[in-house]
Amino acid sequence: LDDQEESRWLFVLKIVQEGVYRELAKSVNRYLEHIWYILRMETRKERRELLEKLVDVMPTMDVRPFVKVVDNIVSTLGTAAKGDFNDGVMEIGKLTNKLLQLKRDMEEVLPPERIREMSKDADEWAARQKERLAKQRKMATQRLKGSAVDDIERPGRRGEVE
């Protein structure tokens, strides 16, 4: 790139992008830790019991993201989820079965009505935040409109101090 100003902005954008990805990774890693703990259990019963215990103490803000992470992992299994394993991929096959069991157990432990109930506090908080932001945006828009009217009524005085 020949333009130094453009290069600087691209560099700044790259830094911002890396920061956002790191923050996203932190939140996803928290859910991945739960998933790995569950998958490490020896028996189906142990995995199911640990899932139930984790869900029972899960913060309301974490319920939907946790479900989404499990769904995303299972949806990326592709042909392995159908049981099409090559000879050298037995470990993936074992893990795939555990992940599929986790998905089935999660659907039983966290049906949509329980997700709604557990997430109710988080949803109410999010709605309040959304409403607060909408009010702030409306106030800022009104201020900008008021400022534009002042500029039209008093031309040539922009930026001057009386």
Give structural notes:
The chain is an all-alpha fold. Helix content is 77%, strand content 0%. It has six helices and no strands. The chain has helices at 4-40, 44-57, 63-75, 90-109, 112-118, 120-153. The longest helix is centred in the N-terminal third of the chain and has 37 residues, at 4-40. The chain is flat and about 75 Å long. 9% of the residues are buried. The model has no long low-confidence stretch (mean pLDDT 82).
Features:
flat; single chain; 162 residues
Which oligomerization state do the chains in this entry correspond to?
A: single chain
Q: Give the terminus-to-terminus CA distance.
A: 46 Å
As a whole number of angstroms, the C-alpha radius of gyration is 25 Å
Beta strand %? under 5%
Question: What level of helicity do the residues show?
Answer: over 70%
Largest sheet: none
Q: Which structural class do you get from the secondary structure elements?
A: mainly alpha
- Summarize the helix and strand pattern as letters: HHHHHH
Number of strands: 0
User: What overall form do the CA principal axes indicate?
Assistant: flat
| SS element count, helices | 6
Unreliable parts: none
> On the 0-100 scale, what is the average pLDDT?
82
